[in-house]
Amino acid sequence: MKETIKVKNPATGEMVEEIAVTPEADVEKILSQGNEAFKTWAGVNAHERAALLKEWAEKVKNETENLAEIMTLESGKPLKESLGEVAYAVSYIEWYAEEAKRVYGRIVPSHTETKRLVVTKEPIGLVAAITPWNFPAAMMTRKAGPALAAGCTFVVKPSEETPLTTMRLVELAHEAGIPKEAVQYVNGYGEDIGPVFTRSGLVRKITFTGSTPVGKSLMKDSADTMKHISMELGGHAPLIVAEDADIEFAVEQTLASKFRNAGQTCICANRVIVHEAVVDKFSEQLVSRVKQLKVGNGLDKTVDIGPVINVDGYTKIQNQIEDALKKGARLLSGHQYDKNDEKGYYFVQPTVLDNVEEKMNIMQEETFGPIIPITTFRENKEAVEMANNTPFGLAAYFFTNDYRTGIYFQEHLKFGILGWNDGAPSAAHVPFGGMKESGMGREGGLEGIEPYVETKYMSIGGIQ
Ligand code: SIN
Which residue ranges make up each domain of the chain? Predict the structure, then answer.
């Protein structure tokens, strides 16, 4: 087992910081402290918990610049996006600070005069979270916010690629007055820490954002202790451009969806499916806009697209492009890169391919990179079939100004998140999550606090 994590800047390969891995015995101790702390934190009244969360949100807001810089250094994300992510992270804390006060039970009308039927909600207990490198701040607060608001205690293992943002967020929570044992972090590698979380009987819930294979294995390993599970897993989002769509607008929204964080988001458009009557117009406008995007070190404020996170991500992207070209796709722009294995940085120019077919890997797998594959359709039914032809069901987008076409897509696309004329549907106050192998449970919105509470029903009898 490695004893340290070398956090590297993906734009330069230089080390940002070397941090200690939390030894297994310490992870167990932290879980045990979290479990003890639950006994008091769950009893803190909801208004007080809300006030502490609001104070945390303020502290994070006041440190926006510093957190954004840490995030860009460890993840490569352009600074303007990191600044946006800090605001996004704060919005989850603020939303759940308010929701803390709205965890309602209910009185059920009784079937007999001699009974009263009462339903209450209770926090689940200690929550263990495993968060990803692509949104090191927002994915942490999207889990910690509702957990703490509901009265759960929380231990997070951030990605080994990007632990520094999370560590600072936890320190800020403590500075805000949230008890130290109620929110803690542990550092380490997924394969070491994951099993400690899953086998612990103290952990009552696992919440994970990451790949579908890891999610499946965490679920299997959690079965013995019957933990509650929330899984935000992979995506393979289709983006459909209908014949009547406003093409200029669809192009701008495609860029917003696809190139956020260099295409390394679970909800970004992964397959662009355009009506054959408008594909030439769409592709031409898209390519001309893509050529204006600047790739480089995210600390440079003029950069639009940073590096991809590591060599594995880079290799997958290149393989998908090569596979598509070999099978007949046409390169419209991009497919250049600046790769340096020795130094450890990997930049991929935004790439547009057309003549893409379903047999190509890029149409079957999530890409996690700045590549747009374009394919065409004739009938809306065909577009839906193509879009749904995936085990994933996280997000889908469609562009049309015809309400009948819009409603048809809304009713037939099997995805948890839809963007109708909208390439950026996420927000703290709406549910985020997928169908099929994209996971289970929802984060954000009213739905996002439910997974942290249990329902308790009591029947009061003997009433005269
Ligand atoms: C993700 O894709 O992993 C999260 C993106 C979002 O919250 O918008």
Answer: 4-233+438-460, 237-428
Ordered strands of the 417-420 beta sheet: 330-333, 351-354, 371-377, 269-275, 237-241, 395-399, 417-420
DSSP bridge partners of 237: 269
Cβ neighbours for 214, distance < 8 A, ≥ 6 positions apart: 190, 194, 208
Residues with CB under 6 A from ligand 1: 134-135, 138, 265-267, 426, 432
Instruction: Provide CB contacts within 8 A for 167, sequence distance 6+.
Output: 19, 158, 185, 187
- Distance between CA atoms of residues 61 and 59, nearest Å: 5
208-to-321, 362, 403, 437 alpha-carbon distances in Å: 29, 25, 36, 14
Has 266 been annotated as catalytic? yes
* Phi-psi label, residue 147: left if phi above 0, alpha if psi -120 to 50, beta otherwise: alpha
Q: CA triplet 403, 409, 413: central angle to 5 degrees?
A: 160
Q: From CA 48, how far away is CA 42, in angstroms rounded?
A: 11
Fold of 4-233+438-460: Aldehyde Dehydrogenase; Chain A, domain 1 (3.40.605)
Contacts of 326 (CB under 8 A, 6+ apart): none
Is 237-428 a CATH 2.60.40.2550 domain?
no
CA 82 to the chain's CA centroid: 14
Give the Å distance between the CA of 425 and the centre of ligand 1.
10
Over the stretch 85-110, which tens digit does the pLDDT of each residue have?
A: 999 999 999 999 999 999 999 999 99
pLDDT tens digits, 274-316? 999 999 999 999 999 999 999 999 999 999 999 999 999 999 9
Question: What pLDDT sits at residue 338?
Answer: 87
List Cα–Cα distances, 271 to 235, 280, 390, in angstroms.
11, 16, 11
Residue 218 has pLDDT above 80, yes or no: yes
Predicted confidence at residue 434, as pLDDT, reads 98
Maximal C-alpha separation, the chain: 81
d(CA 249, CA 245): 8
Taking only the tens place, the pLDDT of each residue in 167-194 is 999 999 999 999 999 999 999 999 999 9
Q: Give the Å distance between the CA of 1 and the centre of ligand 1.
A: 31
